[in-house]
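Work Package 4 report. The design task specified in the project plan requires that, given a folded chain encoded as structure tokens, an amino acid be chosen for each position. We show below one input record used in the internal validation round.
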């Protein structure tokens, strides 16, 4: 499956952005789709994921602020990001996996990756 991430940009603290991850060559309903991010000098970290059967998982720092969802008809997964903070600044990547649910936060379990979209939170 090929992934195309989009929707990043520059936003002020407290603002919102919605990232999109569109797939071709496969159906998202067959995969768990994850969002990861990597800030300069940091390792890539798990942000959120949406399973093939509708389960969601979030890293603690984004709970209550970010929402992941899927539009099956458009074969697209969205990451709605509200109340953004400067520490959310990073390149955001979407990826797919079929790993068991207990390992969905592990980036080395994801086989296909999008190209990344930059999110900058700054005043």
């Amino acid at each position: 499956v090929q992934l195309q991430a989009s929707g990043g940009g520059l936003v002020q603290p407290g603002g919102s952005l919605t990232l999109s991850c569109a797939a071709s060559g496969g159906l998202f309903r067959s995969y768990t789709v994850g969002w990861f991010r990597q800030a300069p000098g940091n390792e890539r970290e798990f942000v959120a994921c949406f399973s093939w059967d509708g389960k969601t998982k979030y890293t603690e720092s984004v709970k209550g602020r970010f929402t992941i969802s899927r539009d099956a008809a458009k074969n697209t997964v969205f990451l709605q990001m509200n109340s953004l903070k400067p520490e959310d600044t990073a390149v955001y990547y979407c990826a797919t996996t079929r790993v068991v649910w207990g390992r969905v936060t592990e980036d080395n379990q994801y086989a296909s990756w999008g190209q990344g979209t930059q999110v900058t939170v700054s005043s």
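The chain has a mean pLDDT of 95. Validation will be extended to a larger panel in the next phase.
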